[in-house]
Amino acid sequence: MTDRSMLMVMALAAATTLAACHKKQAPVVRPAPPPAATGAAGATTRPGPPEPVIEPPIVPPEPVRDDAISSASLDDLNKNSPLKPVFFELDSSDLSPVAQKALDENAALLKRYGSWTVTVEGHCDERGTAEYNLALGERRAIAARAYLVSLGIPADRLRTVSYGKEFPFDPGHEEGAWSKNRRAHFVITAK
Amino acid sequence: MTKAVLTGTLAVAILTAWPRAEQPPPQPPASQPPQPPRPQQPTEIETTISGPAGAPPRLAVPDFIPLSNDAETAAVARTVGQVLWDDLNFEREFLFIPRDVYGTIPKATSFADIPFDRWRELNADGLVVGTVQKIGNGFRVEMKLFNVGTRQAAYSRVYDGTANARLYAHTISDELHKSQRGLNGVARSKLTFDSDRDGERMTGTVQSRNIKEIYISDYDGENQRRVTVGRTLNITPRWSPDGRSIAYTSYRRGGANIFVSNIFQGTLDEVTKGDKAGENWLPAWSPDGTKVAFTSTRDGNPEIYVANRDGSNVRRLTNHPGIDISPTWSPSGTQIAFTSDRSGSPQIYVIGADGLGLSKKTSESYCDKPTWSPPPFNEIAYASRSGPGYDIKVLDLATGQVRQLTFGEGTNESPAFSPNGRHLVFMSTRAGKSQVFTVAKDGKNVRQITKIGNNEKPDWSR
Fold it and tell me: Is this model's pTM higher than 0.80 or not?
């Protein structure tokens, strides 16, 4: 069990490194972000927190132990998912630079594991109404999906679903919780 | 001697079994919904009781009189009297002698020994007296409304049946309101809402996600029952106008689709077959029950659609790159109100059921979940963002006046009108979790309906 966990960690680290390396040779043509939501009242996209200026450590890419990720069950994979969620501002489905970076890394992983199919879930915080949030969550899922498709991920590997504010990740009632709940969340459904 | 007993006896609903879940295989259609008793032909002239100088009449409603000594009859008599008091009090058409002073008045043992003088001392204008008699496996409930001044019965009814005691009271209340006040009461109407109270987890997910199922209850929150077994997210239930079916949004096929549970037959219809791309949310019945409006992303963007209740003849009503969601029908079925963020933030709009004649109705910070009142009122209630949450507001379509029903006690969302337009049901977090409340349309008489788990997105039967 411990061995397996270790393997997982190693594999993930390797995968992440690979993703980071891969990003350096990013596509020449920067994909345009998907259309902004018209509903973004005050969608003055606040700049996300500055990205750390630390250079990614130069680690020679180890051979990826495909087995570690490949042999993991879907549940184990999703429990500590290598696919990063992306977060949104209030009432908005715009992808911030930080969100785009996370999606770049997700796209690299999805290219590496070309058999994975993924559900992109749209989630909202409790500050929108239950009804409108169903549509806003869909907008967020579609924004994330469109960005991945623009990076070359086949559309038929990515389906979307909106859960509005029905499944909060953090049940709290303050910005700390809300910011976690405004997200596109990735669930690997087949590999 | 003309006994003041009515000839007609009514079969009050025979409630043998209640709505079963629609899964697995449909149950035989054995169970019947509560049938409202047929209107009765009075054998004597009914009069109405009024209070002094046009004020509402002041009523006393003591516990009903058990005509036998067994515990069951006594319990039914007590329940009918108490529930009837609550039902009548809900509409606030009468003033009431408080229940806690009834104990000072000698109890009548039949219609023959009512202490009218004592009730008169308490300034009662009207007195409801009822008897309960065990008959077979059911009960006969007889009630009279006496004019305390004249000691004459202004109104009387007899009910036979095997229903539970509460349904006798609800029926008496609705008929009494109709006869005495010309009012359609809501005592036999029902609520529906989604709830995570069972704490069942969604399968196949690693996050802790409670499923939600559809529940129904009496208008006063009694008899809460689960009517779906989806083991997934089932939300936004809406009563069909005939009260026999509930349309709702279900994720049982993965994405969101519109389903109709025929809760007394135990069958399930799919309005959106799940064969189209996109998601389908928030069904709303047309007033005649033949059509369902809903929001769908089948053409790539959230728009309002209308389909027949079997899913055929889908028509698209809106066409705008913004979000269009939350449809509700006008009572005549000729218009649909909905939410759109085409102006930059979610606001309430009205459009003809033919897709023509769009007009914007609100210009606030954020409005959603319009609900159109039944006649004679012409109002749209909605949730309006205020501070960190929402409050319920009501727009009078004739005057454009807006009045506010809640004032920042928690967040208040998802309003729906009662069948007579005098009350609303809504979700509020004022008591902690999300719970269902009812409120009179003047903002008074707030009642908490649910207490366990999170209960949301309620609707009120027609």
Answer: yes
